[in-house]
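Let's do one together. I've listed all components of the complex below, 568 residues spread over four lines.
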Amino acid sequence: MSGKPLAQAEVELTIPFHDVDMLEIAWHGHYCRYFEIARCALLDSIGYGYVSMRASGFVWPIIDLQLRFVRPARFGQRIRVSAQLVEYEYRMRIKYLVSDSETGTPLVKGHSIQVAVDAQSGQMCYASPAVFLQRLGIQSDD
Amino acid sequence: MSGKPLAQAEVELTIPFHDVDMLEIAWHGHYCRYFEIARCALLDSIGYGYVSMRASGFVWPIIDLQLRFVRPARFGQRIRVSAQLVEYEYRMRIKYLVSDSETGTPLVKGHSIQVAVDAQSGQMCYASPAVFLQRLGIQSDD
Amino acid sequence: MSGKPLAQAEVELTIPFHDVDMLEIAWHGHYCRYFEIARCALLDSIGYGYVSMRASGFVWPIIDLQLRFVRPARFGQRIRVSAQLVEYEYRMRIKYLVSDSETGTPLVKGHSIQVAVDAQSGQMCYASPAVFLQRLGIQSDD
Amino acid sequence: MSGKPLAQAEVELTIPFHDVDMLEIAWHGHYCRYFEIARCALLDSIGYGYVSMRASGFVWPIIDLQLRFVRPARFGQRIRVSAQLVEYEYRMRIKYLVSDSETGTPLVKGHSIQVAVDAQSGQMCYASPAVFLQRLGIQSDD
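Okay, and this is what the predicted structure of the assembly comes out as:
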């Protein structure tokens, strides 16, 4: 694989009041939502968003999620959430970086892993379905 | 209608850390969730929970929701949420009271209004479907 | 009062996956969050956001919230949330309209009522504090 | 360390309607909330809940969170969330297991890592403060 990622996206968000806890920082669990917004932007960018996934006969549940909290975010802070596809052959692995929009200071890092599941049979796929690889511009051997 | 409500339910909840905001009180919007937990208990008590609704061919979207906040709730506070069915003929109107579990002090009052929608046609029903009235022990004229 | 509102704001949002329920519509309770984002934009526009409020010695808890659901919103739908200040002398009453960004079709209407509370004493104020009226460009009699 | 954990707790929850997504499963991010409810029960069981933490002059932000999703949970499903303290000397590491209440089938596994931060100075502590070790019944060398 060359240095250029196959798919990536970046979104900007503002920490809303209702995401901030008693410690006056964005509650850690909300980053799952911020990650998802960036992940959806990434998948939309290759024409394989949730609606398209389902039309293709697959769902891609999250099977693994990791978050490392480096610095807290405050109410009203502008954050940038970038998502980058780093594995795609057997499963979809996406890396995330949340940083301060203005300064670029890293706030949270993480990744998610998803696997394709055949929507009809409910069976997990041992390799990524051809439809996903095609959206990435990769010819599959199927 | 006699004084006895046709259907009612009561649930007890503890305010979790992630529901508490910078003012150190349960964020007002979370009461929509607390109301829903009591509403589901009420509908379950008459055998007309969400799964049963859908099996009967209807969904019941919320069309109106009102909340009046009397006193704030704190992290770890035990609250009681009671729900009472107060209208059923043309729509489902449920009244809620959130109170402190120990003292009974009222915290939040409110109501929700739902109407039946035919799941197939997407048409709103002008009167409650017979299946709902039967669960309430009421004979319908249909 | 003339036809021009004293303060108003408008924000655009996209319905994220995690806000959509089993009925494939944005869950009704999430509109409390959408309202809040517009309300914060409105208060920021007059220099009286949450941080400024607290610095002025007051908090403004929500005491009443009403939502009327006209049409559902779907995953990925762009929505516009407008907020307009309609009462300010004794309490802050804000009206909301959520509509489809493209077509302008109304989706949800509502209002919130907040009262000023002295942060030190915890006492509710019977009239809006001078600091708030000044932000609105109104001379108070205090 | 013997086989007996220093601290553990178990809570039972019911998956509410508003936690379920379009795939008709509990949205993955909500498990951060379920973990937290069990974590708070664990900390309460040793008399070192959030209020007690803060009174002791420390906050314990989450710096790492990992979740592995084994099987989905459905609307109305009863789940058991167990939390177990597995590291305490330099940081607090808690392991979680979410399982079906009835069958015991594992649904989600994970862990969280927290470090003590001096509330006044904002400095991270290189070892757990004595107050925490005392709650665990451990004599500290401080």
